Amino acid sequence: MNTAYPAVPVRFDDRLARLIGIPIIGFLVPLLFFGNTLDNGLMVYVPIWLISTLQTLVYWEGNRFIFMQTRRRFPLVTQTRPRIALLVGLSLTYTLLMCRLLRYGVNLFFPTRQTERVTITEEYVGCFVPLIVCLALYESIYYFRQLQAALLESEKLKKENLQSQLETLKNQVNPHFLFNSLNTLAAIIPDDAELSVHFVQKLSKVYRYILEIRDVQTVSLADELAALRAYSFLLQIRFGDNLRINIDIPDERLTDRIVPLALQMLVENAVKHNVISTQRPLTIDVLTERGRILVQNNLQRRNQFSQLPPPADPESDSTGLGLTNIRNRYQLIDGQPIDVIITTQSFVVSLPLLTDAHLQMTA
Questions:
Q1: Which of 92, 133, 171, 270 lies deepest, with the highest CB count within 10 Å?
Q2: 321: closest CA among 251, 268, 357, 248?
């Protein structure tokens, strides 16, 4: 626990504890420390009980006041040591002083009470019982509230930190997408001006989607697929029949949720890292399997090592910003991992499909 957190005032209703605790302690102390005081009957014991309860009231209320004052004087958790030192010193001094004064008062006003049977040591032991109970009660409640406040503050800071990280990751998507789209547009402008205008219209539609989901953590799979289809159109304008994007998602999964732009970024990665030509067309399949959505493509790497077996660790395969971004966003939102499966023939990324009920549980 971070002890730098400020103290939270101990706000609790202790009236019931005082109302019940003081008479009970007053009843038990004579029985426990001053012999068989009930031998002469309950009616004889009642005055002893009342005197003991009065003494307990004085000890309890006085030490409660000392506790409250020392807590106000040293409110921080980092000030626990000086607070406890002051609390113990004042409480012991107060309790010992009141013990002597009350003993004198009882002997003065109740001369028939057989106080000579009670030694000074027994008297001190008896008066320390209310002290221990009172301080234990208030210290326990105080530390529980401090711990509770620290945990809540820690959780709040953790969520704020995760939210900040999430916003940073989401903000990386926009320039990444725009950079690749502008490269695509630059490639087709010299060849077909009319198609370029159509491309810009589609690009505007896709980018509008990016702006709309800027402040959300998840989107419905239906919305994500609509954006993916628009983006796929843009890619296929450039690559023609050399790029095939097949989307096969059952209708019952369209209400599931996914991190925004995840599918688009995976398609981008596939296009970026694989050869696309008439002789070697690239096929990208988007489908669902056992509560997850898969984006898979035939593997035909651009680099000279493309025919070598895949690396043992998928993380070592360079998939750029996209895959890392998606992985981190899932980790921050839901904690579920994404799976990357690489073989000599294919590259597959498996993403969890989230439901509203699951998201509420992890919120």
A1: 270
A2: 268
Q: Give the separation between CA 63 and CA 40, rounded to whole angstroms.
A: 33
Partnered with residue 244 across adjacent β-strands are 283
Does pLDDT of 188 surpass 80? no
Residue closest to 218 by CA, chosen among 321, 314, 293, 269: 293
* β-strand partners of 298: 346
Kindly list the distances between the CA atom of residue 355 and the CA atoms of 53, 253, 257, 359, in Å, as whole numbers in the listed order. 60, 10, 6, 6
Main-chain dihedrals φ then ψ at residue 169, nearest 5 degrees: -65, -40
How far is the C-alpha of 214 from the C-alpha of 261, rounded, in Å? 10
Where do we find the tokens 């939270």? 8
pTM score: 0.52
Phi and psi of 199, rounded to 5°? -60, -45
| Closest to 7 (Cα-Cα) out of 173, 217, 147, 119 | 147
Q: What is the average pLDDT across 67-80?
A: 82
Answer yes or no: are the C-beta atoms of 277 and 242 closer than 8 Å. Answer: yes
Residue 300: other Cβ atoms inside 10 A: 17
Tokens of 131: 């002290």
Looking at the DSSP assignment, which residues form a beta bridge with residue 226?
Answer: none
Local structure of 190: helix, strand or coil: coil
Instruction: Give the count of alpha carbons within 13 A of 315, CB side only.
Output: 6
Q: What does the alpha-carbon distance between residue 38 and residue 60 come to, in Å, rounded to a whole number?
A: 24
Query: Where do the domains of the chain lie, and which CATH numbers do they carry?
Result: 15-156 (no CATH), 189-362 (3.30.565.10)
Q: Can you give the length of the chain in residues?
A: 363
Distance CA 177, CA 58 (A): 74
Give the model confidence (pLDDT) of 126-163 as tens digits: 677 777 877 777 878 877 877 777 788 777 766 666 56
Please measure the distance between the N-terminal and C-terminal CA atoms of the chain and give it in whole angstroms: 22
